[in-house]
Amino acid sequence: MRSLKTMINVALPKGRLGEKVYDIFAAAGYECPSIHEENRKLIFENEEVGVRYFWVKPSDVAIYVERGAADIGVAGKDILLEYSPDVYELCDLGMGKCRMAVAAKKDFRDNPQKTLRVATKFTHIAKTYYAQKSRIIDIIKLNGSIELAPILGLSDVIVDIVETGKTLLENNLEPIETIVPISARLIANKASYKFKNSEISTLCEKVEEYCRAEEQKKK
To answer: In the 8-state DSSP scheme, what is residue 164?
Structure first.
């Protein structure tokens, strides 16, 4: 009787980043052909290599991993910093590179004597950053179109993810401070990492090896 491999449950972020991440996993030996089939399936598995994938909203990946529904997953560093999930961060995949930054109108000049109005959806990151600077702020939580806030006078600055800066430039805004670099990270559930350590460690090593090889090709 054929013995089946221990299955690793993987939460992938929906969208372009998740598709790139899957391609890396597949190239590292964890392919799952059914993931490309046109159907309404939510879970895709390959018992021969011991992997089971499912797509989730990017901001939910860490929740699935923390709660144990997934053994591992891929989440942006922004999500990990904002919500501080109780997971292990295994490695930096070097993908989805951008930065968390403070941006403002081009003529903005900070007045330390006044409370700084900060619009953002990353409230924890913003509070932590300005607390380290001992700067008094008023957080304005927004969920979309953050760039509108300083333009309409709702806030003095925004804290948001900046990739190319093109959207800021087109709206007469500019990044004025970088808070932290952002990229995709491979994370693991703590219990899974203990009980499936061999399988997860092997996967992580193969993924890192593939990523290093790809980086060398670019040089």
So the answer is: S
Whole-number Cα distances in Å, 116 to 124, 140, 149, 192: 16, 10, 13, 43
Residue whose tokens read 């460690």: 201
Residue 195: its H or E element:
helix 190-195
8 A C-beta contact, residue 42 and residue 31: no
Partners of residue 51 on adjacent β-strands: 8, 46
Task: Specify the DSSP class assigned to residue 2.
Answer: P
Sheet holding 43-46, edge to edge: 43-46, 51-56, 8-13, 72-76, 184-188, 88-92
Instruction: Please give the Cα distance from 108 to 75 (Å, whole number).
Output: 33
45-104 pLDDT, tens per residue?
999 999 999 999 999 999 999 999 999 999 999 999 999 999 999 999 999 899 999 999
The helix/strand/coil state of 66 is: helix
Strands 72-76 and 137-141: unpaired
- The 10s digit of each residue's pLDDT in 104-160 is 999 999 999 999 999 999 999 999 999 999 999 999 999 988 999 999 999 999 999
d(CA 51, CA 105): 48
Gap between the Cα atoms of 56 and 120, Å rounded: 23
Which backbone phi and psi does 70 adopt, to 5 degrees? -125, 145
- Grouping H, G, I as helix, E, B as strand and the rest as coil, residue 67 is coil
- Kindly report the CA angle at 152 between 146 and 158, in degrees rounded to 5? 35
Say what the pTM is.
0.90
